[in-house]
């Protein structure tokens, strides 16, 4: 996901501003004359991968402010580097500051963590995937940030990929030995081209998934030896995804087993926000 729909941006920004501004910015309204104009700069306080500038622009646009991005989403910036300039009513800058920075710091945190994972597995064939472990209502933004960091977006929701996970398999097992394969057939009858992913906890599960017709098998919490054996067993007949507790310290060894994908829930549920500041540069009444 390399772009965000303008209607979605507008909706999310207005919701965020309603939460923060409410009936009005009391402090700014009593201390800053309405006719005062200003300029400001957003500065990175630490090295990071930037993501979310389009949301910063949308925030200030709501108050008739103008922005000039100095970098692009996906760019790596250094401590102290200027990433965006804002101009317009001084009130607009002060009122929109926190909402704009909240979007920028959260999405840049996700992009930065993603880039770290991607760089560690460089030279292997493994791609870093995100998951559905996202903040409710903000999934599109967070997956956009993953892409800005060089990661690969997995399914957006329950509607675009058929994924038979452990609890699905528990139920299907009770319905009979052919129930899983029949479910896969039914998926493809309804949507012929939809990807079918089956989770496997053991090598026996991998064989079962192949027999059922999976074109993508999720290898959940397997050891490195089990991952290597799964790669040998499948021999290219399905894509293989390693999952479960993946960390920066372990991801390289996982990638070197030969799997196609490594999914990392931490990209979106545990990324640390990046520190940015907005600094007023000038104010005038002209």
Fold topology:
Elements: H1 6-21, H2 26-31, E1 37-44, E2 48-49, H3 53-61, E3 66-69, E4 76-77, E5 82-89, H4 90-120, E6 127-129, H5 139-148, E7 162-164, H6 166-174, H7 179-190, E8 196-200, H8 203-212, E9 216-220, H9 224-234, E10 239-243, H10 251-255, E11 261-263, H11 266-269, E12 276-284
Describe this structure as you would to a colleague:
With 286 residues, the chain is an alpha/beta fold. The protein has 2 domains: 6-116 and 272-284, Aldehyde Oxidoreductase, domain 3, CATH 3.90.1170; 119-269, Alpha-Beta Barrel (TIM Barrel), CATH 3.20.20. 43% of the residues lie in helices and 20% in strands. It is built from 11 helices and 12 strands. It has helices at residues 6-21, 26-31, 53-61, 90-120, 139-148, 166-174, 179-190, 203-212, 224-234, 251-255, 266-269; strands spanning 37-44, 48-49, 66-69, 76-77, 82-89, 127-129, 162-164, 196-200, 216-220, 239-243, 261-263, 276-284. It is elongated and about 75 Å long. The model has no long low-confidence stretch (mean pLDDT 96).
Gross morphology is: elongated
Strand order of the largest sheet: 6-11-10-9-8-7
Query: What is the fold-level CATH name, i.e. the topology of the largest domain?
Result: TIM Barrel
How big a fraction of the residues is strand?
Answer: 15-25%
CATH architecture of the largest domain: Alpha-Beta Barrel
